[in-house]
Write a structure and sequence with these properties.
elongated, alpha+beta, disordered C terminus, 5-stranded mixed sheet, 12 helices, 10-stranded mixed sheet, single chain
Length: 540
């Protein structure tokens, strides 16, 4: 067998201690050659990586105000120097980094350094397609970041304008419900609700086709209409009263109320509606002294419009001007020839010969989950399409007040850059155009006629000229402005369900003028009667 394993005695030598009067070992006992090389550092030095062959970690600190040029007490004992055999390459560039200049050309210098850095990477790096793609991606990211900075700087310098509400909120009104409008953009109805026509009434005038050929050089003055606009609220509508008596639905409203709710997420300015709940049915009404029927101008534009009641380019005056232009244009483009639209040509019993010709459809929509909407939809005119068939029209007007503020010039661009004009209007008036498209879809209009009206002089809000007319199919235009019927009905159903949860009574549905919030206030049954009109109400 094998013997036991050999054992080794481990020697341990106690170091010799020298007794001295001072702290530590005597100076002459330390071997200077064996001592660790020491590199002095200044207090301002930054430490990068442990092994940084490209010196990228130190590059950005190379020329700071403490060690100009990087010479401040830093030893070069650790730097690698190529000897004669290896002079073909060098791992470290020993040239001091250029000192960064501060002042007027500071940012240019930074960009120049970045470009040089990119060039160095290309020379020593991969030249394949993968590298090209990566460089393109980096450049895209860089330009995107630059855009974000520009937007941030622009928004930071811009003054924020606080808009006054559409109604003075009384301190004794309690909030029943509220919805954040940003949540509404994702809502979708499973299908477009089926509808049936309950009543058809009113009359429609024929469209004058010469207005399709109007151009900025062959413009026409906008004439002030002597006709009267008939747009009664839901409760003042005798046809709607009959339908309520028959219990035709659970929600009663007009098309502009329905569209305001459907497009609420796009609205910026404040608006409000009275909602009355009785016996499981909701009736939406506008306040008689409110501004619900006024059209907005540049509501969603990046350059905010001032909330100054006396300024001709302020929110309030522009709204009045736009509403007046819209009505005047819709009457001027119609001829005196008209046809009855249903049995009763005068549904509101006005007996007014100067009343504007409008065709009304009362439609019943089965929204689902026990919600049935009965709404009045208006049509502005009728024309013959290319096949000779009758086409029902919804006629609306976009008005230009100051091309420098709006960012588009109708007279210069409407013929040559039509797409740019429409795109700018969609950006500045997203809510108004969405509501019009929504109303045209619900009314079953075959064509949406958009008139472009401009001030004859930028500082004169009373005289206008018609410079162009465009025709769209409502469904195609809805796609263009990213308005889907699924979302429209999803939003409407969500708001109605919120109101249906409340007890019977009178409520005020208010869009906050400065936040994307829709609130429902509990108000007394006696509110908003004739005596309330004398009290001060703020504009937008």
């Amino acid at each position: 067998g094998h013997g036991p394993p050999p054992t080794f005695a481990m020697g341990f030598k106690v170091p010799e201690c020298v007794d001295t009067d001072a702290w530590g070992p005597p100076v002459d006992s330390v071997d200077a050659d064996a001592a660790l090389t020491y590199a002095p550092f200044t207090r301002s030095d930054k430490f990068g990586r442990a092994a940084d062959w490209n010196m990228t970690g130190y590059a950005k600190y190379a020329g700071n105000r403490y060690n100009s040029g990087g010479q401040g007490g830093v030893s070069t004992v650790f730097n690698f120097f190529a000897n004669d055999e290896e002079d073909s390459f060098s791992l470290v560039d020993n040239a001091p980094a250029p000192r960064q200049r501060y002042g007027a050309r500071r940012f240019q210098n930074r960009n120049f350094q970045r470009r040089n850095w990119n060039n160095n990477i290309i020379e020593g790096g991969d030249m394949g397609k993968g590298a090209e793609r990566e460089r393109a991606r980096q450049q895209r990211m860089q330009s995107k970041k630059q855009q974000q900075w520009n937007t941030w700087a622009h928004n930071r310098n811009r003054e924020t304008i606080t808009y006054s509400g559409s109604v003075d909120i009384r301190p004794d009104w309690d909030v029943a419900e509220q919805i954040n409008l940003s949540q509404l953009t994702k809502l979708q109805a499973s299908q477009t609700p089926p509808h049936e026509e309950l009543v058809r009434c009113g009359s429609l005038a024929h469209f004058d086709k010469t207005y399709d050929r109007v151009t900025p050089k062959l413009d026409r003055d906008l004439q002030k209409s002597k006709k009267n606009s008939m747009n009664p609220s839901t409760s003042d509508d005798p046809v709607m009263a009959d339908l309520m008596a028959k219990k035709s639905g659970t929600v009663y409203a007009t098309d502009n109320m329905v569209s305001a709710v459907m497009c609420a997420a796009r609205s910026v300015y404040g608006w409000d509606l009275i909602v009355t709940k009785r016996d499981g049915a909701l009736v939406m009404d506008k306040r008689s002294e409110g501004n619900f029927d006024l059209l907005t101008v540049s509501e969603t534009a990046q350059a905010m419009i001032e909330d100054d009641k006396d300024n001709i380019n302020g929110v309030h005056k522009l709204s009045e001007e736009s509403t007046r232009c819209n009505f005047d244009y819709s009457q001027q483009v119609l001829t005196e020839d008209y046809e009855k639209f249903g049995a009763d040509a005068d549904p509101f019993g006005a007996n007014d010969a100067s009343a504007a010709k409008v065709g009304y459809r009362y439609r019943k929509w089965n929204v689902g989950d026990g919600i049935t909407l009965v709404a009045r939809h208006g049509l502005n005119g009728v024309t013959d399409d290319k096949t000779g068939a009758k086409a029902l029209l919804s006629i609306k007007t976009l008005n230009e007040f100051d091309s420098k503020i709006a960012g588009v010039d109708y007279r210069k661009q409407i013929e040559t850059q039509r797409g740019a004009v429409i795109a700018t209007e969609l950006k500045n008036n997203a809510n108004k155009l969405a509501k019009w498209t929504c109303e045209a879809l619900l009314a079953g209009a075959d064509q949406l006629k958009l008139g472009f009206v401009s001030r004859t002089h930028p500082k004169d809000p009373n005289n206008h000229a018609i410079v162009n007319t465009q025709t769209y199919k409502p469904k195609d235009f809805a796609q263009q402005i990213n308005l889907t019927e699924g979302n429209m009905w999803g939003v409407f159903k969500s708001v109605v369900e919120m109101c249906m949860k409340m007890e019977d009574g009178k409520y005020l549905l208010v869009k906050d003028a400065n936040k994307p919030i829709l609130r429902t206030y509990i108000v007394g049954d006696g509110e908003f009667n004739d005596d309330y009109a004398s009290e001060p109400i703020n504009g937008h």
